[in-house]
Design goal:
With about 190 residues, the chain is of the alpha+beta class. The chain has one helix and nine strands, in the order αβββββββββ. The strands form two sheets. The protein has a six-stranded mixed beta sheet, covered by helices on one side.
Length: about 190
């Protein structure tokens, strides 16, 4: 005589398996939620730390090479408002994408505040062969200001959004020293 056995799970075994699976899924869900929150925080901090680096990368050389500094002067290419303009001789640099024009040519570098879908800080360089614009800070918290009264020292004050701070912004200053002390101001 052969005995038939029925394979499968009993009801208590099945209930225990479902409970354990539920506990595991809750733990995995909590880890994924924490991961997304951490990723967002790190992204905000990275964007906030990128802004001072980009501003100092361009601001300091622009101020150092300036023959004249004009507050609220310069051309923003039809968009935005000028914060400050620097006029200097055209000098080849690591950031020049084409062959430099003769050293006797002048270049105007205008730092502009551009408002659109985002509030941005833009650097526009014009050496007479057309302007080249670079977005320096892609998201501003408030309008940048320039302190030009203490020539040859020029400081730009910038604020960027930072949700990790109590006031939701991170502010920083970048100072450059000009080789020539000539300041002009336009209304």
């Amino acid at each position: 005589m052969t005995r038939r056995t029925e394979g499968g799970f009993t009801l208590p075994e099945l209930l225990v398996a479902i409970i354990i699976l539920g506990i595991i899924m809750i733990a995995i869900g909590a880890m994924i939620t924490t991961s997304f929150q951490t990723s967002r925080t790190v992204s905000d901090q990275l964007q906030g730390s990128r802004a001072p680096k980009m501003v100092s990368r361009y601001w300091v050389p622009d101020v150092e090479q300036a023959k004249t500094v004009t507050e609220r002067g310069g051309n923003c290419g039809g968009s935005g408002s000028s914060i400050v303009a620097f006029e200097s001789a055209v000098v080849a640099s690591a950031f020049t994408p084409h062959a430099p024009t003769p050293r006797t040519a002048n270049r105007t570098i205008t730092w502009c505040e551009v408002s659109g879908s985002r509030h941005q800080l833009v650097r526009r360089a014009d050496d007479g062969s057309g302007g080249q614009s670079i977005v320096i800070v892609s998201d501003l918290e408030s309008s940048p200001t320039v302190e030009t009264g203490a020539a040859p020292r020029y400081t730009i004050h910038v604020s960027v959004p930072d949700n990790n701070r109590s006031d939701n912004s991170y502010s920083f200053d970048v100072t450059g020293l000009s080789q020539v002390i000539t300041t002009a101001s336009t209304p």
